[in-house]
Design a protein that fits this description.
- The chain is built from 10 helices and 11 strands.
- A 5-stranded antiparallel beta sheet has the order 6-5-4-3-7, covered by helices on one side. Strands 9-10-8-11 form a 4-stranded antiparallel beta sheet, with helices on one face.
- It folds into 4 domains: 60 residues, Arc Repressor Mutant, subunit A; 46 residues, no CATH class; 81 residues, SH3 type barrels; 82 residues, Alpha-Beta Plaits (2-Layer Sandwich), CATH 3.30.70.
- It is 39% helix and 26% strand.
- With 311 residues, the protein is α+β, with helices and mostly antiparallel strands.
- The radius of gyration is 26 Å and the shape is elongated.
- This is HTH deoR-type domain-containing protein.
- Pfam families: HTH_11 (PF08279), WCX (PF25583), WYL (PF13280).
- Keywords: Transcription, Transcription regulation.
């Protein structure tokens, strides 16, 4: 994207005394003519760029405008690098690798040993074991659609198993709980909806263009309906000794109390098919005490499973 390139050029010029147009062209894989057009655009934005021709010439920011210190500290550059490397573990986007190279270019040779130590201290691998190439292809297609503001169509199976065709305007790809989701404006519902990529198939990018809507991602808008107070159900769970470490991992130590020598967890979740499957995965390690209707629901499902394997 052009805006990414312009920003990268400004950062490079702030951190370097002078750079050749040919060097910038090679770095961003564009023509020298494109670089000069970028320089003109930066000038028009109010950042004074000087271009000197001939031997020893090059492109630089006017001395009176240059910042005395780097725009980003070494610690900030290391934090950005670690974040990009972690995201790239599950989201293979070419410009992430390009951004990493540009960040390393900003670090001087003297600072490089310390920089490497900081960036190699942490690595967060958020990818799944044996991640499906089908999911990666969906991510690539939806990323392209969001970039080009083009609508997408797909077949979707909801939590209740109902199948339907959807058309939506893709805004944001979200990785949550080790699963990818699409936050998009559903044209059928005329509202934003959260779609799980595993439930999407036959994803196609359409020629139809759309105008992006304002979304405050800092408020995690996809969680507003999930955590509505009237949508939550409080559960009391009896934790068997064999399941204490598992319960602590899922619910946190704060949710666990001990009564008459027994471990009990008090948690709140929305009641739906997801909750039943979530509780069943604990097997005999956890027993639902209250509410009675969920206890009975889990009992019925467990009996159905037993019956399935007995036939």
């Amino acid at each position: 994207m052009k805006i990414d390139r312009l920003l990268a050029i400004v950062i490079l010029l702030i951190n370097k005394r002078q750079v050749q147009a040919k060097e910038l062209a090679g770095m961003f894989e564009v023509s020298v003519r494109t670089i000069y057009r970028d320089i003109e655009a930066i000038n028009q934005a109010g950042i004074p760029i000087v271009t000197l021709q001939g031997a020893g010439g090059g492109i630089s920011i006017m001395e009176r405008f240059r910042l005395e210190n780097k725009l980003l500290s070494a610690d900030e550059l290391a934090a950005i690098t670690t974040a990009l490397e972690s995201v790239s573990s599950t989201y293979e986007v070419l410009h992430h690798g390009s951004a990493l190279e540009k960040i390393r270019f900003l670090v001087s040779e003297e600072e490089m040993p310390e920089f490497r130590k900081k960036t190699e201290k942490w690595f967060v691998d958020i990818s799944s074991w044996g991640e499906s190439p089908v999911i990666k292809e969906k991510i690539r297609l939806l990323d392209e659609a969001a970039d080009s503001t083009r609508a997408v169509s797909f077949t979707y199976v909801n939590r209740e198993g109902q199948t339907g065709t959807r058309k939506a305007e893709p805004h944001t790809l979200v990785l949550k709980g080790r699963h990818w989701y699409l936050y998009a404006f559903c044209l059928k519902r005329q509202a934003f909806r959260f779609f799980k990529l595993l439930r999407m198939k036959d994803v196609q990018m359409l020629e139809e263009k759309f105008e992006r809507k304002e979304v405050d991602l800092s408020s995690l808008p996809w969680e507003t309906s999930w955590y509505k107070p009237d949508n939550m159900t409080e559960l009391t769970l009896l934790i068997n000794p064999s399941g204490e470490s598992l319960a602590r991992e899922w619910f946190g130590s704060e949710a666990l109390t001990y009564e008459n020598g027994q471990c009990v967890a008090t948690v709140s979740y929305p009641e739906d098919q997801w909750l039943y499957g979530f509780l069943l995965q604990f097997g005999t390690h956890i027993e639902v005490l209250t509410p009675p209707r969920i206890r009975q629901k889990i009992k019925n499902l467990a009996n159905q499973i037993v019956h399935l394997y007995e036939t």
